[in-house]
Design a protein that fits this description.
single chain, 612 residues, alpha+beta, five-stranded antiparallel sheet, three-stranded antiparallel sheet, 18 helices, 16 strands, EC 3.2.1.4, signal, glycosidase, carbohydrate metabolism, cellulose degradation
């Protein structure tokens, strides 16, 4: 066999799967979960449904696949461009499904399970279309070269929509294997609520698994236009009901599962994810005759966990602010994926009554979850810049996102056609906030020194991606809902999703004492609470909105009955004003500040303001 760098596929693990309370505080993880799911609706391609909540988007890509004689309408744009790349899309579906498999109960409790399942199904509906024959899989629609030459809304795009496929003559084991994993994982998600659809997904997974193993090769050797944008640098080693267990046991070396000790996990380098799932089988007593081989998988999984904690032999790099750092371009994809693995492994260990064995000694499962939480908190604003890297969460988040759809006025507001190059001249070069809020999008994030430039042309830091958000679904559900006492090693039985769609994310608010006719409104809400040493603490979020038609140039707030720290305002004497990053508040806009104390909400009122 020709020698390729190895890529470990997760498909057989999900095909097989077909088979401690933590004190949380500081952030509204439930709100972040709602927003992170909403982002996927902004990334939709195709005919948008009547339940679409991101209303500034319109139908797009309605002729995708037509030139190739196949229906490829639908799916997701993976980032800030208008190309549909199969490999990262499949990984996105895999991670969303894995999130639901592990933490579907918590999602159901927060009212977000149906939305999360809708997000998965939007992806799998497309992947089914992309797999029209057992050994044919379409892996891309559009190409990065022509797409990146233009800056257009998806609704206006005039770029090539050529579709590219893999088949026996032009194989792609990594793409077929990852798509098999996505189908298999999603089949578990829908097993109870939609069994016929689950069986359809499983049939595609089996066929794709066989395709990946029988016709071996790298997808970007066949779909060459993908090389520049999503090069499959790890190569391939696609997987070959006991059959899949035997495959993992017999192919651990060639797959890299027992040989590669990794310090990263993402859409192209999946070893750590495979090793974590195999360790789950081992701890759950499902290893059969392969316990010793699966033990080698687990050793590599624990190498990854220890490296993230800084307690191993080859520790990951971290920024001065404590963020995992792998690379400058879209570093947060590695942060969210690694944090998800830390969270699930913590729960696996807890369920098994075990601890983590690191070079520096034994580590309690709670320490893994605590570190995962610290990474999420960093993303949500607990960092040296006090910046939330989730758009729309908190009061200080990226305003100039590298994203075609959000940076150009909505087609529903101004349907005038935006030309290929005209978009660059008119919209890309604007030094102003995006006209459409890309709620929930997690951008690329800061550099190795916690620095971040909120500029549209800074694609390395301001471009979002679906695979940044996908692992966050499970992690945020876990942090919001707690462990709930469920044994993570037991067979998965998901709750039924609610039949009625949940409206756009909102929270109940308690108005502060400001007349309704006043030009400045203040609303407070308690977002979370926790107990520490017998004392209950509360986190309050306060929103100040300029309801006048003029710009608010300055404001002085009076805050009394405050008995704890406050973030998001600048204190001057006995009053509070705009934070350092806000000079004014345009008409209709809001700012948010938060405070924590062990009492009912503080009294917040407007002392003075200036409108111009």
């Amino acid at each position: 066999m020709q020698k390729f760098a190895r890529l470990c596929c997760m498909a057989p693990l999900f095909l097989l799967l077909g088979l401690l309370p933590f004190a949380l505080a500081g952030h509204d993880y439930g709100q972040a979960l709602s927003k992170s799911i909403l982002f996927f609706e902004a990334q939709r391609s195709g005919y948008l449904p009547s339940t679409q909540r991101v209303n500034w988007r319109g139908h797009s890509g309605l002729n995708d696949g037509k030139a190739n004689g196949v229906d490829l309408v639908g799916g997701y744009y993976d980032a800030g461009d208008n190309v549909k790349f199969g490999l990262p899309m499949a990984f996105t579906v895999t991670m969303m499904s894995w999130s639901i498999v592990e933490y579907g109960r918590q999602m159901a409790a927060s009212g977000e399970l149906s939305h999360a399942m809708d997000a998965v199904k939007w992806g799998t509906d497309y992947l089914i279309k992309a797999h029209p024959q057992p050994f044919v899989l379409y892996g891309e629609v559009g190409d990065g070269n022509t797409d990146h030459y233009c800056w257009q809304r998806p609704e206006d795009m005039t770029t090539s929509r050529q579709a590219y496929k893999i088949d026996p003559s032009n194989p792609g084991s990594d793409l077929a294997g990852e798509t098999a994993a996505a189908m298999a994982a999603a089949s578990i998600v829908f097993r109870r609520s939609n069994p016929s659809y689950s069986n359809e997904l499983l049939a595609h997974a089996h066929q794709l698994f066989e395709f990946a193993d029988k016709y071996r090769g790298k997808y970007d050797s066949s779909i060459t236009v993908a090389q520049k944008y999503y090069r499959s640098v790890s190569g391939y080693a696609a997987t070959n009901n006991q059959y899949y267990l035997s495959y993992l046991g017999n192919n651990g070396g060639s797959l890299g599962g027992t040989g590669w000790a990794m310090t990263e996990f993402g859409w192209d380098v999946k070893y750590a994810g495979v090793q974590t799932l195999v360790a789950k089988f081992l701890m759950g007593g499902k290893a059969g005759n392969y316990a010793s081989v699966f033990g080698e998988y687990q050793q590599k999984a624990e190498f990854f966990m220890c490296s993230c904690l800084g307690k191993g032999g080859g520790n990951v790099q971290k920024t001065p602010g404590g963020l995992i750092f792998r690379q400058r371009w879209n570093n947060l994809q590695f942060v969210t994926s690694a944090s998800f693995l830390l969270s699930v492994y913590s729960d696996y260990l807890t369920s098994a009554g075990k601890t983590l064995n690191c070079q520096s000694g034994r580590v309690a499962p709670s320490e893994l979850l605590s570190f995962a939480k610290s990474q999420v908190d960093y993303i949500l604003g607990d960092n040296p810049r006090a910046t939330s890297y989730m758009v729309g969460y908190g009061s200080n988040y990226p305003q100039q996102v590298h994203h075609r759809a959000s940076s150009i006025v909505s087609v529903k507001v101004n349907p005038s056609f935006v030309t290929c190059r005209g978009g660059y001249a008119t919209w890309y070069s604007r030094k102003a906030s995006d006209p459409n809020l890309l709620t929930g999008a997690v951008v690329g994030g800061p550099d190795a020194y916690d620095n971040f430039a909120d500029e549209r042309d800074n694609y390395e830091q301001t471009e979002p991606a679906t695979y940044n958000n996908a692992p966050l679904l499970g992690l945020l559900a876990r942090l919001h809902g707690g462990h709930s006492g469920y044994n993570q090693l037991l067979p998965v039985v998901l709750p039924m999703p609610k039949a009625q769609p949940k409206p756009a994310p909102e929270t109940k608010t308690a108005p502060a004492q400001v007349p309704s006719s006043a030009p400045i409104s203040i609303e407070q809400k308690m977002t979370t609470s926790w107990n520490d040493k017998g004392k209950t603490f509360y986190r309050y979020s306060t929103t100040v909105t300029n309801k006048s038609p003029k710009t608010l140039k300055s404001i002085n707030l009076s805050i009394s009955k405050l008995y704890g720290p406050l973030w998001g305002l600048t204190k001057s004497g006995d009053s509070y004003g705009f934070p350092a990053w806000i000079n004014s508040l345009p008409a209709g806009k809001s700012l948010e500040f938060v405070y924590i104390h062990s009492a009912s909400q503080a009294d917040v009122s407007v002392s003075s303001y200036n409108l111009e």
